[in-house]
């Protein structure tokens, strides 16, 4: 299920949503190798997100069963 990029970044601990929005508008974020500058961009769990060339970990969903 697609989620907003800034929300995914905040959940991964990269930055707050507001700080993530600033990183996006400044062109410091890429999704699947393409620079993203538009707020509200949707990303899928398997998309590769990078901030200044550093991969964002924790974008993929994990299911744990006991």
Automatic annotation (TrEMBL):
GO MF term list: 23S rRNA pseudouridine(2605) synthase activity; RNA binding
Where the record annotates domain RNA-binding S4, the positions are 3-61
Coiled coil regions in record? none
This entry's Enzyme Commission designation comes to 5.4.99.22
InterPro entries from the UniProt entry: RsuA_PseudoU_synthase, S4_RNA-bd, S4_RNA-bd_sf
Q: Where are the transmembrane segments?
A: none
**What start and end residues bound the annotated signal peptide?**
none
Q: Which GO terms describe its biological process?
A: enzyme-directed rRNA pseudouridine synthesis
Family annotation (Pfam families): S4
SUPFAM superfamilies documented for this protein: Alpha-L RNA-binding motif
CDD domains given in the database record: S4
Q: Which UniProt keywords apply?
A: Isomerase, RNA-binding
Say which domain of life the source belongs to.
Bacteria
What PANTHER family is this protein classified in?
Answer: PSEUDOURIDINE SYNTHASE FAMILY PROTEIN-RELATED, RNA-BINDING S4 DOMAIN-CONTAINING PROTEIN
Q: Which family does it belong to?
A: Belongs to the pseudouridine synthase RsuA family.
Any idea what this protein is called? Ribosomal large subunit pseudouridine synthase B
Query: Organism source for this protein?
Result: Weissella viridescens
């Amino acid at each position: 299920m697609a989620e907003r990029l800034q929300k995914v970044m905040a959940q991964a601990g990269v930055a707050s949503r507001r700080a993530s929005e600033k990183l996006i508008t400044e062109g410091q974020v890429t999704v699947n190798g393409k620079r993203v500058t538009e707020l509200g961009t949707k990303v899928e769990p398997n998309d590769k997100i990078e901030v200044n060339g550093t991969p964002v970990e924790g974008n993929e969903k994990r299911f744990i069963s006991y």
